[in-house]
Design goal:
Organism: Allocatelliglobosispora scoriae
Pfam families: Erythro_esteras
CATH class of the largest domain: Alpha Beta
Distance between the termini: 22 Å
Radius of gyration: 22 Å
Oligomer: single chain
Shape: globular
CATH architecture of the largest domain: 3-Layer(aba) Sandwich
Largest sheet: 8 strands, mixed
GO biological process, one term: response to antibiotic
InterPro entries: Emycin_Estase, Hydrolase/PRTase-associated, UCP036794_erythomycin
Number of domains: 2
Protein name: Erythromycin esterase-like protein
Number of strands: 12
Structural class: alpha/beta
Number of helices: 17
Strand content: 15-25%
Length: 394
């Protein structure tokens, strides 16, 4: 390893990573290369503490159900629920099992106890109410939106009409709909009408904005808009599940990322006067380049939420990718990015991609990992990453 490559790296600290970011950053995406490995959310916690204490950050958002995250946010804000309740109800995708997520909520609540309400830390989810096996019913989002409006104005639709159109939730949550569009109710006449309902109810938030601003809190209005976005996004997603075209699976990947991007955009706008936001998710949801995978023997390509936010925010979006060297018997070859980084003298390192690529004297090849759940970084794209965080061994 050349001295130039070594000079592109520093031992990992929050400050070392923050030093590589533009001062214009409003949203920092921290990606992880695989799920379920505690080293990465632990690293995230360490970074977030630094960002809060030294860089003015006041919020974090994760690849978790945006509606479930309201439970976690209530807890960190000082709500009456217990930490156990916040964990069980506040996360999706199995994230409640993570000790690092538990420690994050505990620490955020402790910090908030010392702060005025307007300066409190916030915890959001930016994924839709989606799991690998299917999507939630739009009932919770639509009825919460309806009830918010009904407390102040005359909604365009009644709760009884909503219930009739929605039908049983089991029709919406059928896990077989992911593989078989005939099992989806997303393009029934009732589902099409529900998309009009969601549009009408969201329009009422705008039509009655002056009255709602006078009679409700900013948090209440934020949640109403969140429910409106989520209802519309879920109905689009269910319609995608019912699509019979050959591009169906690729289309629903785009739809999920669009929901993520819209949630990130709303969070950034909400936090505009308070400080930047840290977003934590898989690298594939936050990178600027197109993401891809094979599913059911079909190659899929889509623009990630991070790519969309990069297009919207420009220099206001920054992306830090994480990757690792050895995991059990899976050791990267010397010709790969991870193999080169494994020769660094640091167990955890922050790499300046611009200095690293300038110092390279050969072309690197993508790593082919033994574990299919791990997505290796493409060495040809690291010049479009603001920072790389490397963990030598898991």
């Amino acid at each position: 390893m050349t001295d130039l490559i070594q000079n592109s790296a520093r031992p990992f600290t929050g400050g070392a990573l923050a030093a590589l970011l533009s001062p214009a950053t409003r949203l920092l995406g921290l990606g992880e290369p695989t799920h379920g490995v505690e080293a990465f959310p632990e690293l995230r916690n360490e970074l977030f503490r630094h960002l809060v204490e030294h860089e003015g950050y006041r919020s974090i958002t994760m690849e978790s159900d945006c509606l479930a995250a309201l439970v976690a946010d209530d807890f960190v804000a000082g709500g009456t629920g217990t930490l156990d309740e916040a964990m069980s109800g506040g996360f999706s995708h199995g994230l409640a099992a993570s000790p690092a997520n538990r420690e994050l909520l505990r620490w955020m609540r402790a910090v908030n106890e010392q702060r005025p309400p307007e300066d409190r830390l916030r915890c959001d989810g930016f994924d839709g109410p989606l799991e690998m096996t299917g999507a939630a019913s739009p009932r919770a989002a639509l009825t919460a939106l309806h009830d918010h409006l009904a407390a102040h104005v005359d909604p365009a639709w009644s709760r009884e009409a909503l219930d009739d159109l929605l039908g049983p939730d089991e029709l919406w949550t059928d896990p077989e709909a992911l593989r078989d569009p005939a099992r989806s109710v997303g393009r029934t006449p009732e589902a099409r009408e529900l998309r009009l309902v969601a549009d009408d109810l969201r329009a009422q938030l705008t039509m009655h904005a002056p009255r709602l601003a006078a009679e409700t809190s900013a948090d209440d209005r934020w949640r109403a808009d969140l429910h409106a976005r989520t209802a519309a996004g879920l109905l689009r997603y269910h319609a995608g599940l019912a699509d019979t075209s050959p591009t169906r699976l690729n289309a629903i990947m785009f739809l999920r990322e669009a929901m993520m991007a819209d949630n990130l955009d709303a969070i950034v706008r909400r936090e505009a006067d308070r400080g930047p936001t840290l977003a934590f998710a898989h690298n594939s949801h936050l990178q600027r380049d197109q993401s891809g995978m094979h599913f059911g023997g079909q190659p899929l390509r889509w623009w990630s939420a991070g790519a969309v936010m990069g297009a919207r925010l420009g220099d206001g979006y920054a992306f830090a990718a994480t990757t690792f060297g050895t995991r059990g018997t899976d050791t990267p070859g010397p010709e790969t990015l991870e193999g080169v980084l494994s020769a660094l003298p640091h167990d955890r390192a922050v790499i300046d991609p611009a200095r690293f690529t300038a110092a390279l004297d050969r072309r690197l090849t993508p790593r082919v990992p033994a574990d299919y759940t791990y997505a290796a970084l493409d060495p040809a794209t690291i010049d479009r990453i603001d920072a790389v965080v490397f963990v030598r061994e898991l």
